Each structure stands twice: as C-alpha cells, then as structure tokens.
Amino acid sequence: MSAPLLCVEGVTKRYGAVAALDGVSLEVGAGEFFALLGPSGCGKTTLMRCIAGFETPDAGRLTLRRADLAGVPPHRRPVNMMFQSYALFPHLDVFENVAFGLRRKGEGKDAIRARVTELLDMTQLSPVGARRINELSGGQRQRVALARALAPRPALLLLDEPLGALDRKLREETQFQLKEIQRKTQTSFVIVTHDQDEALALADRIAVMRAGKVEQIDSPVDIYERPATRFVAGFVGETNFVQGFIRRDGAAATFETPFGFLARADCALPDGARATLSIRPERIGVSREGAGVAGRVEDFVFRGEYTLLRVRVAPDVTLRVGAYDGRFAIGDEVRLTIAPDAGVLFADEP
What integer pLDDT is reported at residue 165 of this predicted model? Predict the structure, then answer.
C-alpha cells in the first residue's frame, strides 16, 4: 500500500451505553479504493461521519495527510461526501449541479468550465449537461452526484451506499465506471456498504466491521479465501460450516465430521480440539460416481453460470455445493470431494 493518507487510531464513539465504535484503527492509502463493510448497526456509517466531521469521536485520533482533524469543521476538511440519496439540486441543470461546489469556493468562470467539462466527459454525461435532474435516469443521477463530489478535487471521497438505489444490471455497470473514474482521478475513495458483492468488486482493501469493531482488514481475495474469523467467513459470500474434531497422527491432521474424515493440509490445532470448517460451495467437487463423500441431492437453485445444490451427507448435515458441469435433479446420488487445502478451520471456543 502507498503511504497512508488517512489514519484512524483507536477511535471510540458512544451513544449512551451503546458503543457505535470501539477502538477502531485503520489506514487508507493515497489513491486507494477502500471499503467499510458490515451489517446494519456495525458502526461503519458512524466512522464515515467521524471522518467527514459530522460526528466527534469520544476517544482516539483521526489524521489526514498527517494533520490532526480534531476540531476541524466539515467544510474545512479536504474531504467530500457522496450521499446515498445523491442530494442533487432539482432546480439546476447537470452542469450547474457539478459546478456548485466550485462556485462556492469562488473559482473563476474559465476554471469552472474546464473542470466541469472534464468531469462530464469522464462520467459520460456531456450529452446531458443541459438537462434538469428530473430528466435523468437513476444511473445518470448517480454519476452527476459523483462528478459534483469530485469537482473540488478532494483528497478523500466518502461514498455512502452509492449504488443502493440502482437495479442489479445497472449497479454492475456502474461498478466498472466507479473503478475507472477512481483510477483516472487517483482520489482515495472510502465506500460504506452492507453489500458484500459490491465491496468485493470495487475495493482494493476491505475492513469488515461488527458491533463497533474491525474484524479483518485485507484484500478482497484474502477476505473471501482466508477469513480471519467465523463471522467474516459467514458474512462475506456463501459458505458451509461443518463442526467436528481434529485428529492427529504425528504431523498429519484429519478433521472428523459426522460424514467422515477429511484430510487437512495445514492445521495448527491440537489433537482432540473442537473446530468448525468453513468451506465455500465452489470448493466442493461433485460427481455422480467415484470416490468421495456419499450424498443425496435434496434441492437445487439454478443461478445461470452454475447450479447450487443442497446435498444431504449425514442425518443432521446438508452441504451447499456449486455444480458447474452437468445437470442434477432432486434425489440424485452424488459423490463430494473436499481437497485438503479447501476451506478454513476455526477453533471452537470452550
């Protein structure tokens, strides 16, 4: 990561007896696309508001470009914010919406026209620059809000659930546009979202939050493939949780489950330890015959590029399995294979 632009050090914020933020620490690099991801009430929006200056932490420190933000009002911070509602001005056309912040700063007409023209080109809004906001599609309004937020050249742009109002196809298209614009401007983006797919698609790094604390900060691939906690494994993507015991024979380790023993390539847990294996549906192989765990298809959901099967492997255990080849029906007998390096083991608390 490049040198930190934003440093959050031990930030705590309480509302009465509730700790919205509890000793949160993280860094955002210059030019980085960073995501704050978590369920409702985890503290991600409170943290964003503290960075923007709309809330004051009870403890901890926020610095931007090594300057302490304590006591600096929102309008004096080199930070801008794109609200979930977009907060566009309906009485102004697209050009004037984008130009609004620059006019407030007192920039000259030529500089304003050059900057707004640059951003309209970048966001593919040049053909609609003279239109009013109510004449635009949802995707166009989103891009107007983004262009307006970027116009004053903030060091850091905060985005509050920016794609929540868009339908799925438009949201996916807009994700590519957001990443391209962020790369072109080299502005640090911090996106706040509860949508795991959005965070995985957009961010260079993700901070997964829960109950006012950071559970893990990592790249999207590492968050998905190597979750640090059971919460992260369950919140980000689909997974199966299988409970069992570690069995060791010298250096070799196996995982005893209700449906058999699974070899493990990397296991630091002691013999006899209770543990839970988190394994993604796509990491489980499925076939109609051969070696593997015997199971029966109980249900399935067709998802286009693959079919998600629910397979009964023991009286009290069903596994979700991603089938990418072949067609399966309810009642089919199948064999499942789980590679020794597939999934992540978590020690169960005593």
Answer: 61
How far apart (Å, rounded) are the C-alpha atoms in residues 82 and 330?
47
Which secondary structure element, helix H or strand E, spans residue 132, and what is its range? none
Same domain? For 212 and 135 the reply is yes
Structural domain of 262? 240-347
3-state DSSP: the chain helix, strand, coil percent, rounded to 5? 25, 40, 35
* 110 and 12 belong to one structural domain: yes
Domain count, the chain: 2
Q: How far apart are the first and last CA of the chain?
A: 38
Structural tokens at position 51? 């960075």
Q: Of 182, 199, 228, which one is at a domain's C-terminal end? A: 228
The contacts of residue 231 (CB under 8 Å, 6+ apart) are 208, 210, 215
Is the whole model's pTM more than 0.70, yes or no? yes
pLDDT in tens, 201-230: 999 999 999 999 999 999 999 999 999 999
Those residues with Cβ within 8 angstroms of residue 25's Cβ, 6 or more apart along the chain or in another chain: 8, 9, 10, 11, 60, 214
